[in-house]
């Protein structure tokens, strides 16, 4: 009886693994969707999320000091709460876009960018450490507030920018020789 | 000789038009907040397109529209880089320039949040939320200051 249960259990595990594999392989590696997502992620990271002035402003000590001095009490509390939420959203978005770039590197980069094995390993380590740093930063900000780890935030942003540079290089083949104007209004 | 493509030529026109706009019109508005409100007011809410008769006559309506949109995004980024202290000064300056009573102005801005519709398109929601949070705080600080100031005795 016990043997039967064990066999049934192993069978269930194998079936679940097969299902999982089938689901994963149905997503085409290096497909257009991955490329578009990677391109958008890169653009969002480079133009909106990671510019140093944006990162500095998000965690500017002078803002917190000024508000605490100018309007102590409820205004200051609301400001701190809102800024904390914004910083947490910022970390979440950086994490999300980095994951999107990682997906691209896992699949599409194999086909389009000729990365050496060494570069791929180094990039994989960079991705892993950056995602761990993002998680740690989220916990720190959640516990200690938006000013909990400004240095770590700066270092995370710098690491993310380095990954963006590599990704930009890998995505360079998508750039048209004469890029069209990116206008949604005029078109 | 290399020929310039129509896209490059138009981009150059847009840059020139944006330069004109900065030098002639926007230079008269010292505060970025004033510039943001002015540029937002040149946008048609129904179409999202910007209109400026002078620029359109000098260039083309499309070039004028793109130049205004460029300047609008530029000013938004400038405001995004301002500290809360700077924003308080800007809102205060704008409030005085309207000639409206401070209490009335602050109440209206807190309720209606007119700055929300002054945001350019294609701006990340996070950036919008950040600026809105800072502007709300600036309004709350001005309101707190107003409440601390004793009312002037009636004549």
Structure description:
The complex is a heterodimer of chains A (187) and B (155). Chain A is mainly α. Chain A has one domain. Chain A is 78% helix and 0% strand. Chain A is flat. Chain B has one domain (6-148). Chain B has 155 residues and is an all-alpha fold. Chain B is built from 7 helices and no strands. The A-B interface holds A 44, 48-49, 53-54, 57-58, 60, 62-63, 66-67, 70-71, 75, 78-79, 82-83, 86, 89-90, 93, 178, 180-181, 183-186 and B 5, 7-8, 10-11, 48-50, 62, 65-66, 69, 80-81, 83-85, 88, 121-122, 124, 126-127, 129-130, 133-134, 136-137, 140-141, 144-145.
Count of alpha and pi helical runs of chain A: 8
Strand content of chain A: under 5%
Q: What's the order of the H and E elements of chain A? A: HHHHHHHH
Radius of gyration of chain B: 18 Å
Task: State the main characteristics.
heterodimer; A: 187 residues; mainly alpha; flat; disordered C terminus; B: 155 residues; 68% helix; elongated
């Amino acid at each position: 009886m016990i043997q039967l249960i064990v066999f049934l259990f192993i069978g269930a595990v194998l079936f679940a693994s097969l299902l999982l594999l089938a689901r994963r392989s149905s997503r085409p590696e290096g497909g257009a969707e991955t490329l578009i997502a990677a391109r958008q992620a890169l653009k969002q990271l480079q133009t909106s999320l990671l510019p140093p002035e944006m990162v500095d402003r998000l965690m500017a000590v002078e803002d917190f000091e000024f508000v605490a001095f100018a309007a102590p009490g409820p205004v200051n509390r609301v400001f701190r709460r809102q800024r904390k939420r914004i910083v947490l959203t910022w970390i979440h978005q950086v994490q999300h876009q980095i994951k999107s770039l990682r997906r691209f590197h896992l699949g599409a980069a194999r086909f389009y960018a000729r990365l050496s094995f060494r570069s791929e390993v180094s990039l994989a380590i960079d991705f892993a450490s950056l995602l761990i740093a993002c998680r740690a930063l989220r916990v720190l900000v959640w516990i200690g507030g938006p000013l909990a780890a400004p240095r770590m935030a700066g270092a995370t942003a710098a690491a993310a920018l380095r990954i963006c540079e590599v990704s930009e290089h890998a995505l360079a083949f998508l750039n048209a020789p004469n890029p069209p104007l990116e206008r949604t209004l005029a078109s | 000789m290399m020929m310039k493509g129509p896209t490059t030529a138009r981009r150059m026109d847009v840059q020139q038009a944006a330069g004109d706009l900065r030098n002639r019109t926007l230079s008269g508005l010292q505060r970025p907040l004033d510039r943001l409100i002015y540029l937002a007011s040149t946008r048609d809410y129904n179409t999202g397109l910007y209109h400026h008769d002078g620029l359109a006559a000098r260039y083309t309506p499309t070039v004028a529209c793109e130049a205004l949109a460029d300047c609008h995004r530029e000013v938004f980024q400038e405001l995004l880089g301002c500290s809360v202290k700077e924003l308080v000064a800007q809102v205060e300056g704008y409030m005085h320039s309207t000639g409206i009573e401070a209490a009335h102005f602050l109440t209206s801005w807190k309720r209606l949040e007119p700055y929300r519709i002054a945001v350019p398109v294609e701006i990340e929601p996070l950036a919008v939320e950040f600026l809105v949070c800072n502007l709300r705080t600036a309004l709350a600080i001005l309101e707190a200051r107003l409440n601390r100031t004793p009312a002037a005795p009636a004549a």
